[in-house]
Amino acid sequence: MSAYILRRLLAAIPVMAIVAVLVFLMLRLTPSDPAAIIAGDFANDQQIAEIRSKLGLDQPILTQFLIWIGNMLQGDFGESFFYKKQVAQLIVERLEPTISLSLLAIVLTVSIAVPLGTLAAYKQGSWIDRFVMGFSVIGFSLPVFVVGYLLIYLLAVKLDWFPVQGYQYLADGFGGWLHRLILPALTLAIVFVALIARMTRTSVLEVLHEDYIRTARAKGQSELKVLVRHALANAAVPILTVIGLTFATLIGGVVVTESVYTLPGLGLLTVDAVLARDYPTIQAVILLFSLAYVLVNLLVDVAYTLFDPRIRY
Amino acid sequence: MALADATPVRPRASALRQLARSTSVVVGGFIVAVMVTIAALAPWLGTRDPAEVNPSVRNKLPGYEATIRDDEGKKVPVAYRLGTDSLGRDIYSRVIYGARVSLIVGLTVSVISISIGLLIGLIAGYVRWLDGIIMRFMDGLMAIPAILLAIGLVSVFRAGLFAVVLAIVVPEVPRVVRLVRSIVLSIREEPYVESAITVGTPTPLLIFRHVLPNTLAPLIVQGTFICAAAILIEAILSFLGIGIPPEIPTWGNIMAEGRTLFRVFPHNILYPGLFLAVTVLGVNMLGDGLRDVLDPKMERRG
Amino acid sequence: MQGATDTGGGPILELDGLTVALPKGGDRGNAIDGVSFSVGRGEIVCVVGESGSGKSVTAQAVMGLLPKGQLAVTGGSIKLEGREIAGIAQPELRRLRGQRMSMIFQEPMTALNPVERVGEQIGEVLEIHTPLSAAERRQKVLDIMAAVHLPDPASMIDAFPHQLSGGQRQRVMIAAALVLDPVLLIADEPTTALDVTTQAQILKLVAEMQARRGTGVLFITHDFGVVAEIAHRVVVMQHGRVVEIGSRDEIISRPREPYTQMLIRSVPSLHPPDRKPNASTVALSTNKLCKTYSSGGFLAGKRRVVKAAADVTIDVRRGETVGIVGESGSGKTTVARCIARLIHPTSGTIRIGDVDVATLPERRLRPHRKHVQIVFQDPYRSLNPRRTVGASIIEGPVNFGLATADAIRRARDLMQLVGLQPDALDRFPHQFSGGQRQRIAIARALAMEPKLLIADEAVSALDVSVQAQVLALLDDVRARFDLAILFITHDLRVAAQICDRIAVMQNGVVVEAGPTTEIFAAPKHPYTHALFAAAPGRGVRFGDGLEAVS
Question: What is this model's ipTM?
Answer without folding.
Answer: 0.84
